[in-house]
Amino acid sequence: MQLHLEMKWSPEQISARLAAEFPGRLEMRVSPETSCQSLYVQGRGALRRELAKSLRTGRALRKPRRKDGERRGKIPGMVNISERPAEAADRAVPGHWEGDLLIGAAGRSAIGTLVERTTRFTMLVPLPGGYDAPAMAEALTPVIAGLPDALRRSLTWDQGREMKAHAQIAVAADCEIYFCDPHSPWQRGSNENTNGLLRQYFPKSTPLAGHSPAHLAAVADELNGRPRKSRLLAHRLRRRPCGPAWTPETSAAPGRQQSRARQSLPPAAHGTLRRVPAVYG
User: Fold this and answer.
1) Torsion sign (Cα): 70, 110, 178, 192
2) What is the pLDDT of residues 47-97, one digit of tens each?
3) What is the spatial distance between Cα 109 and Cα 205, in angstroms, rounded to a whole number?
4) For the whole model, what pTM was predicted?
5) Contact at 8 Å (CB) between 214 and 141?
């Protein structure tokens, strides 16, 4: 093990090599974790320091993933995505949203992103006060509350700490909030895809606090005017190749889905989606 570490092998490579060289001798096996523990816990003196330098991290001690004082765990009172209405899953009825944060350089700034599941319509939420739970609630509540009742059916988020005030948001905005399973970004697939598109405008490792609401509005309007690769795209292009991104006529799929989507909205709400602002601030 010492020889291979000095050759810049990783603990995983050492473990695999020992298993291949001694297939019938379990006493010659060593797991990657055991290799690390032998350096981090059991190693002593100059030998430990020299071998630790051979690790790709170059550290003699493990770096904790948590920040000082940070406590991780489930958000109190959250409702799992499994309890979300079935109509949200098949995207037949508009008004079900997915949300997330676009994080800036060093995690010091962020922009809130909201994507409607049926049409992929996107709204951007400025967060000038940061993105801790109180600031998030203050910024997000008026955005959701400002939507028409028929377009405010549910919001799905990941289990980020910024949503600890979800109960306050749900009551104030009159909107049900659901949370994805841990490490399951595909449960918010439309939002994840949209965040990837937004990185064209807001590259990683760049600060996001300096973007004005007017600039965010322009970005959202441009993004909403682009065709999106989805099961609605072919119908949108066939019906109105150069039309707006969100109208009742262009956002609904043909046949049963268009009928169900329109029937779910009161007559006064038809056409309202076009007038929903894409950014608040």
Assistant:
1) negative
2) 455 555 556 555 555 555 555 544 556 789 999 999 999 999 989 899 999
3) 10
4) 0.61
5) no
For the cut 80, the answer to whether the pLDDT of residue 146 exceeds it is: yes
Q: Give the model's confidence band at 24: pLDDT under 50 very low, under 70 low, under 90 confident, else very high.
A: confident
Q: Cα 23 vs. chain centroid, distance in angstroms?
A: 43
CA–CA separation, 216 vs 198, rounded Å? 10
Do residues 180 and 211 touch, judged by C-beta distance below 8 A? no
Per-residue DSSP letter, 265: S
Beta strands (DSSP E) in the chain are 96-103, 110-116, 122-126, 154-157, 176-179
What is the chain's Cα-based Rg?
25
Query: Can you tell me the distance from the alpha carbon of 117 to that of 86, in angstroms, rounded to the nearest whole number?
Result: 13
Domains of the chain: 2-54 (no CATH), 96-275 (3.30.420.10)
Would you say residue 214 has pLDDT above 60?
Answer: yes
Question: By C-alpha distance, which of 250, 223, 224, 249 is closest to 236?
Answer: 250
Q: Where are the beta strands (DSSP E) in 119-163?
A: 122-126, 154-157
With CA atoms as reference, report the closest residue to 198 among 113, 89, 91, 105. Answer: 113
Span 122-142, pLDDT tens digits? 999 999 999 999 999 999 999
DSSP-based three-state secondary structure for 207: coil
